[in-house]
């Protein structure tokens, strides 16, 4: 997907074939965290555990840094990367706040106020 | 003969399941969400379906990236609640209806919908949260369930049109099953929400309202809406709404709107719910 209209949507990475291809091992590492012994092994030795997976150095670093947006850029899918959050004891709302650059209370208040408005968030070019 | 008596649509937000399981359903934040389903609980207790065909999506639980079926039908005798990373939800095991499920698989494939047949699958919050919202917290679920999992995680999900037509094919398959069964179809997921990236938290009440209106009155028109419109207007995870079109396709063109409920927020998501019956 080269000139995808989806790329015009701000703050959004479509999990398409390109992302899935580059993110396969990152996502499968995340998938392994569904099992308790693997979560323990990852917590005990994060770098050593990551080295078991044929991920790129940038992907490993993004995981170690818990750089949630960077993981998505490097092919991570939110349903997979959220398994790292669960391992860390973080909720979906907590990482959503981090990814959108606000504190968790600010994010929760935004949701109580009706969520992030679509106005101004439809298009990078704002022509829609 | 088996017959489809109603369609139900509902969001399947995991935090709703967690709130119920942890005894928080009476808290101010959650009270309006659960109250919104009081009508449905009373209604379905009266209606007593024998089987629910539950259309949902797996969230990287039973299906990782190793295998990504577009449409998968659960033909097993039972399906265990999945461990999604913090232990399985304390809800009953889901009992299947293998005879009807296999009949559907056979009919649908010959009707040119190439279903993936699943004989072993744990079911995640996508399936169990709608069960909790509709039936509460019983010792055992009061009906059989045929899980129908749709890929909406890996782009592209099936088109709205394909989903709508699958629903129509499901109606044909069910109606050709010789046992006398009362069948309902649940379409789940949505409504507007985005869980990823700087645009996380997106909600679009106007889009959601228009979707509900059109799903009821003009489903064929709604089925032509392209993916880009869902992602742009209803968020990257709002695309789950195509699954509601499967439920809608299984009902006749003219339906009666028995119930509608809409609430923002449940965690990151707009909650929507419909009960539809043939007019």
What can you tell me about this protein's structure?
- The complex is a heterodimer of chains A (128) and B (279).
- Chain A is mainly α.
- Chain A folds into two domains: 16-89, Orthogonal Bundle (Protocatechuate 4,5-dioxygenase, Chain A); 91-128, no CATH class.
- Chain A is 56% helix and 0% strand.
- Chain A is globular.
- In chain A, 38% of the residues are buried.
- The mean pLDDT of chain A is 94.
- With 279 residues, chain B is an alpha/beta fold.
- Chain B has one domain (3-273): LigB-like (Protocatechuate 4,5-dioxygenase, Chain B), CATH 3.40.830.10.
- Chain B is 34% helix and 22% strand.
- Chain B contains ten helices and ten strands.
- Chain B has helices at 14-21, 31-35, 38-47, 98-110, 125-135, 160-175, 205-217, 219-222, 227-234, 244-249, and strands at residues 3-10, 51-56, 71-74, 78-79, 94-95, 116-118, 144-150, 182-188, 255-266, 269-278.
- In chain B, the strands form two sheets. An eight-stranded mixed β-sheet of chain B has the order 6-3-7-2-8-1-10-9, with helices on both faces.
- In chain B, a hairpin with a 2-residue loop joins strand 9 and strand 10.
